[in-house]
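Sample pair:
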Amino acid sequence: MPGSSQPVPLLDALRERSAALRDLNAPAQPSGAGSPREIDRRLLHAFRWLDEALSHLDVIRPVVAHRFSLDGVLTIATPRYDRGFVSCRRTSIAGFELIERIELYYRMTNDEPIRVEVQPGAAVALEDRLRAAQLDFHYRIEHDEKRQTRRGVFTVAQAVMAVVRFVADYERGIVSAMLRNVDRFEPVTLAFSPPEIAEPALEDLVRLMMGEANSFLKRAPLAGVGAASQATARSAPTSLSPSRYRAGAM
């Protein structure tokens, strides 16, 4: 009939009613820089920015100007960036799907493995240190001509697995950044205010990854041992060697 309005599609009508009820039932949230939606927006931008940056690094494969040392054992100097990827995980808060964390994994390598000789009695302690640094290795025992144990030998691959993890604490309005094996064989956790999660900080992060500058580490204070840090530690995977690398999926 001329002039009659077209019926609203069922899905559109359901969408409108659902959105109205969600907004009605959701608790009031601040609209400033620390609001959940603003934190989510900044993390989404960071995810997309880092994803593109890694795609370029995968092609360029630059040399990384870092020295990764296990004191008295070995040093992996100026490895080459090999490959990496970034992922994000979402969670539901007050009816909204928000980014819970962003995880950036990458690998740096040198060609020749490192040979480390130890007394057999010291092998267990060294194995623990290598595992803590997320280094791949093979261990064997060498014998002399009389078949007596002579030494233990570790063959260690020069492959450093690194991770950068941004974890949002929507209740406190902060973003924790945990770095492991980025510039050293140990973790560092920083507590960022949401406005700091922007391109200048992301650029500094990539420069830190490449060993060009450490400005990223000066952008935020070290995270404390409060609830946010403990939650980050509980949610963090114990291994930095995801199956995606081991399966050669990249």
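Residues 36-60 form the longest helix (25 residues).
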